[in-house]
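Incident log, support desk, overnight shift.

02:14 A customer reports that sequence design results differ from what the structure should imply. Their input is reproduced verbatim below. On-call engineer (initials T.W.) acknowledged and began investigating.
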């Protein structure tokens, strides 16, 4: 284990970042800019934020700071707010690509935060790959924890029962088995990108302690039609007690650059704690054009799904749909729209139906130059 405190940007919150957000339309409120990429000198982008609640009004956001010349590799940092997102402190490193592990140097991507229910530990996960790699598709899991609300982090080497390449993007889902917690972590393998004998598959990892991860199962391809690149699964409770539902980003299997026709999310369910899954099937009401969506189910049975609208690569407005219990999906609604690029919304429920949200945003022509925060209510 080692701390990254010797290489932090800053540990104090004495100089909160206050930044005006562009005028926008949508149902998200109290929008703030957590950070801009210009505040990370030498960076190429900032991307894929994730949010966690340490305690009431104490929020932690992790995100990636990209290295120039790399597609999706860099550092993972965290910013803290102690006033429910109104102001944000200076970032601290969780994973720093300048820290060597022996003779190896890694770059990181895809921050994921998780606070286990009833515990005063905040976990951070990411993917890491050697610096000489062009992209992060052939990565391994990296982990760290914080016992002080995200101000400092201790690295932990995960004990992996699954040893192949993986990418993690979406969060951990907690279930209970025999009176004990068990955690599901969606991961994808995209070895086909660099190896013609490889594959593309949505995997499910499982753990009882958040350090040791084993392969629990995978999501089968649809029983009819062409194969689909199923990935970036968002997990939530299913329709029946004890059921888990996964709603996935999609692309064509043979060419991951192409969206399906029509562009749709696919879903699958598990009735045995993520060990086996139903064959993936199209969600005809849920748009997905190769961009992560966020799927969630409230305790009252209401579901909602947030996504980037438009064709592949556009990622402009964030839209959403809701589905009340035993009702069809609603018409499309606007989460955030400001004439700029937006993607990868992630939310945390802080009270029934009350959420805190983060997403990466940019300009009209350039993606991922800011991290946005907002508040969102689902009725």
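02:41 Re-run completed on a clean worker. Output:
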């Amino acid at each position: 284990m080692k701390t990254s405190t010797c290489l932090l940007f800053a540990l104090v919150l004495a100089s909160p970042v206050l930044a005006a957000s562009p005028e926008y339309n949508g149902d998200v409120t109290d929008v703030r800019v957590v950070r801009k990429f210009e505040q990370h000198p030498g960076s190429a982008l900032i991307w894929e934020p994730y949010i966690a609640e340490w305690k009431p009004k104490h929020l932690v956001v992790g995100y990636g700071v990209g290295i120039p010349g790399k597609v999706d590799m860099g550092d993972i940092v965290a910013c803290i707010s102690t006033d429910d997102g109104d102001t944000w402190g200076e970032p601290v490193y969780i994973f720093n690509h300048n820290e060597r592990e022996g003779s190896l140097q890694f770059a990181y991507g895809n921050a994921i935060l998780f606070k286990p229910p009833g515990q005063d530990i905040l976990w951070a996960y990411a993917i890491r790959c050697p610096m000489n790699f062009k992209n992060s598709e052939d990565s391994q899991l990296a982990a760290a924890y914080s016992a002080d609300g995200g101000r400092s982090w201790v690295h932990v080497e995960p004990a992996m029962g699954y040893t192949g390449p993986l990418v993690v993007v979406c969060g951990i889902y907690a279930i209970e088995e025999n009176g004990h917690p068990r955690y599901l972590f969606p991961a994808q393998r995209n070895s086909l990108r660099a190896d013609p004998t490889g594959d593309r598959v949505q995997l499910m990892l499982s753990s009882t302690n958040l350090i040791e991860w084993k392969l629990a199962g995978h999501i089968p391809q649809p029983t009819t039609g062409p194969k689909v690149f199923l990935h970036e699964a968002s997990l939530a409770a299913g329709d029946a007690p004890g059921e888990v539902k996964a709603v996935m980003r999609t692309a064509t299997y043979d060419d991951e650059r192409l969206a399906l026709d029509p562009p749709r999310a696919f879903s699958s369910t598990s009735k045995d704690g993520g060990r086996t899954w139903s064959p993936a099937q199209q969600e005809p009401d849920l748009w997905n054009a190769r961009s992560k969506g966020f799927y969630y189910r409230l305790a009252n049975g209401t579901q909602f799904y947030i996504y980037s609208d438009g064709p592949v690569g556009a990622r402009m407005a964030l839209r959403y749909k809701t589905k009340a219990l035993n009702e069809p999906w609603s018409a499309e609604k606007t989460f955030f729209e400001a004439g700029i690029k937006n993607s990868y919304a992630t939310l945390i429920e802080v009270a029934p139906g009350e959420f805190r949200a983060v997403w990466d945003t940019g300009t009209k022509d350039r993606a991922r130059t800011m991290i946005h925060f907002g508040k969102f209510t689902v009725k």
